[in-house]
Amino acid sequence: MLAKVLSDGFSHAHRHLGLVVVDVLWRLVWLGITVFGLLAVAYSFVPDVEAPSTNFSVIDAWVAASLLRQFWTENAAALLASILSVIGVAIVLYLVLEASFRRRLVVRGINRKQKTRGELIGEFGIGQTSEVSTPVKSSFVVFASSSLAKSAILGVSAVLLALAASASAYAGIAALAGFAALTFLLTIIDTLIRADAVELLGMDLLGVTGVIGILVLFESMICASLAIGVVAGFLSVSTSFHLFAMLGVTALVLVLINFLHSYLLVVRFSAVGIMSRNVISV
Fold it and tell me: Which DSSP string do the residues of 110-138 spell out, in sequence order?
């Protein structure tokens, strides 16, 4: 059962690779806008910093440190407010773009429409009602609300678990495990809400957990392997050329991870949609 669902999900993703490309592109656009906003904030405060005019390196360092302290004292509130404003706008923009583009990745399930007596008489020559089903895409509100709720829950949980983890190393391990479990649980619920397949929690809990768990585990293993490779590469850097080479490799790895995440996201929604249709047809 799981093998068939995953096979069909991957087949669907192969036929819709354009959705994967679009999902990566809107995130790159969002990242570019966010970086531009932060650079604009930094540039707006640059004229307030005066370069030291001395010629001795030790004195230059002391003067630069004094100027930075003075700059921070005079502009700390305005700088923090500007940065937080940019971050807030970036978060809202991310939610809007995600809901606008990623809702196209999912078919939200079944819209049950009751045909009228006249429609059935005209089509079949009979005089009774019947229920038909048509696919409905996930709505913008549902997608944005689920993303906001998931982010809020994970944010609050991260703060609370971080406070609990400060007690001891064992508490830290338990907090990390608890956060991972909570993230996986919310991923399942969030996926089912977006796909309008919440009934799978009651009708095929083990199946839907297995499908999403396999995909999440597969993605996590690949990302962890790539991260270990990048860290090992930076630890072996000995020249500036190697450093720039590793920065290029890191950028390439991040692009690959984004493509992988988008691809597996299409597979996940496809698999859940297939399971939902199978359950409803039974």
Answer: EEEEEPPHHHHHHHHS--S--EEEEEEEP
